[in-house]
């Protein structure tokens, strides 16, 4: 085996220099969104720390090996690099860029700088974790979770709200909406913040009913709007492009309006009469069948659904349902959640 000094060190140094640049640039692009788009101090600090760790290895001798005019790669491009279809695609492309660069640094670093190689291996694992956290907070990541959430808990006021929600999360729930029409704003804000932190711990989505301001204040994953709430376009302007916006619908016309306004998902119901929507006539299973045949976006059957009638709702075409009392008033919320998820899984 040849000693490292016998290898073409200039070429190796050029590779290391190029990939250090590539990794640091990609991290900076991600960092800017964490800082200005998400206003997330923790993710911003992680990106900055990763960049600074890489900077210490970007030494003068590596920079001196750079030969930009003689680099045949500067003229190479791909059509996919010319545009980004979404913010999620932009972030994912740059996270992949960082991960690939770190892998190159790890492998080529073994030939000349084993300490740097070992450091880049550990940094790569940190970037994987950053990828998971960040993509979970992007619109694409949130929508992926939404589509994979068969059960949606809409809360109702309860003195044991937090323990009930946590019990449901322990049962496998992955989507929660905080709904309280009567509490004072300070109470709503405090509970929403606690619920948001709780959902983060269990890697579940957290949405706020009606109140775009509270959703923004607690960094919720999105908001659910009723027919009498603000336009979706205005909510999107306030919340930004990365959060989920849902809309309640009770008939095909309201569904079409929600679709034209750009809703990310819709509620379909009330399927059965429910005290949550006192005085509102049930939309019935016919509307569930209509949604199953016509909705191009995720939709949740909602309204009076419980373990007893869930089979009929599934038979009508629902694969995702939202419940209130079936969990909030259950003696054992964890077991109730598991039972509902089992039925939904069997139906799917």
From TrEMBL:
Sequence segments annotated as region (Unknown): 1-126
Reactions listed under catalytic activity: 4-methyl-5-(2-phosphooxyethyl)-thiazole + 4-amino-2-methyl-5-(diphosphooxymethyl)pyrimidine + H(+) = thiamine phosphate + diphosphate; 2-[(2R,5Z)-2-carboxy-4-methylthiazol-5(2H)-ylidene]ethyl phosphate + 4-amino-2-methyl-5-(diphosphooxymethyl)pyrimidine + 2 H(+) = thiamine phosphate + CO2 + diphosphate; 2-(2-carboxy-4-methylthiazol-5-yl)ethyl phosphate + 4-amino-2-methyl-5-(diphosphooxymethyl)pyrimidine + 2 H(+) = thiamine phosphate + CO2 + diphosphate
InterPro entries named in the record: Aldolase_TIM, ThiamineP_synth_sf, ThiamineP_synth_TenI, ThiD2, TMP_synthase, TMP_synthase_cyanobac_bac
Bound cofactor: record note: Binds 1 Mg(2+) ion per subunit.
Annotated region described as Thiamine-phosphate synthase, given as residue ranges: 127-348
EC top class, as a word: transferase
Binding site for Mg(2+): 210, 229
GO terms assigned for molecular function: magnesium ion binding; thiamine-phosphate diphosphorylase activity
SUPFAM superfamilies: Thiamin phosphate synthase (SSF51391)
GO cellular component, one term: cytoplasm
Entry binding sites for 4-amino-2-methyl-5-(diphosphooxymethyl)pyrimidine: 177-181, 209, 248, 277
Cofactor: Mg(2+)
EC number(s) stated in the UniProt entry for this protein: 2.5.1.3
Alphabetical keyword list: Magnesium, Metal-binding, Thiamine biosynthesis, Transferase
A GO biological process held by the record: thiamine diphosphate biosynthetic process
Signal peptide: none
Residue stretches making up the Thiamine phosphate synthase/TenI domain: 151-327
Residue positions binding 2-[(2R,5Z)-2-carboxy-4-methylthiazol-5(2H)-ylidene]ethyl phosphate: 274-276, 304
ATP-binding as UniProt keyword: no
NCBIfam families documented for this protein: PRK02615.1, thiE
Family: Belongs to the thiamine-phosphate synthase family.
The protein's name in its UniProt record: Thiamine-phosphate synthase
Organism of provenance: Thermoleptolyngbya sichuanensis A183
């Amino acid at each position: 085996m040849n000693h490292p000094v016998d290898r073409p060190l200039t070429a190796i140094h050029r590779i290391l220099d190029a990939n250090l640049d590539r990794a640091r640039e990609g991290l900076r692009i991600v960092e800017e969104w964490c800082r200005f788009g998400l206003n997330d101090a923790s993710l911003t600090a992680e990106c900055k720390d990763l960049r600074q760790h890489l900077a210490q290895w970007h030494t003068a001798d590596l920079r001196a090996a750079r030969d930009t005019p003689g680099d045949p790669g500067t003229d190479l491009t791909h059509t996919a690099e010319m545009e980004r279809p979404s913010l999620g695609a932009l972030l994912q492309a740059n996270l992949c860029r960082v991960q690939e660069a770190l892998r190159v640094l790890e492998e080529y670093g073994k030939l000349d700088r084993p300490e740097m190689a070992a450091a880049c291996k550990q940094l790569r694992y940190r970037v994987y974790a950053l990828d998971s956290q960040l993509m979970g907070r992007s619109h694409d990541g949130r929508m992926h979770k939404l589509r994979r959430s068969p059960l949606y808990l809409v809360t109702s006021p309860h003195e044991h709200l937090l323990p009930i929600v946590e019990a449901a999360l322990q049962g496998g729930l992955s989507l929660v909406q905080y709904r309280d029409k009567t509490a004072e704003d300070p109470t709503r804000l405090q509970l929403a913040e606690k619920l948001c932190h709780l959902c983060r711990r269990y890697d579940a989505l957290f949405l706020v009913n009606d109140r775009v301001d509270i959703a923004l204040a607690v960094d919720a994953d999105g908001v659910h709007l009723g027919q009498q709430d603000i336009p979706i376009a205005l909510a999107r302007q306030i919340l930004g492009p990365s959060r989920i916006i849902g809309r309640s619908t009770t008939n095909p016309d309201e569904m079409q309006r929600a679709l034209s306004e750009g809703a990310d998902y819709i509620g379909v119901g009330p399927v059965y009469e429910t005290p949550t929507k006192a005085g509102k006539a049930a939309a019935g299973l016919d509307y569930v069948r209509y949604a199953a045949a016509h909705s191009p976006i995720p939709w949740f059957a909602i309204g009076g659904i419980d373990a007893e009638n869930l089979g009929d709702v599934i038979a009508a075409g629902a694969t995702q349902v939202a419940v209130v009392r079936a969990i909030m008033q259950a003696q054992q919320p964890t077991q109730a959640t598991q039972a509902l998820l089992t039925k939904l899984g069997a139906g799917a």
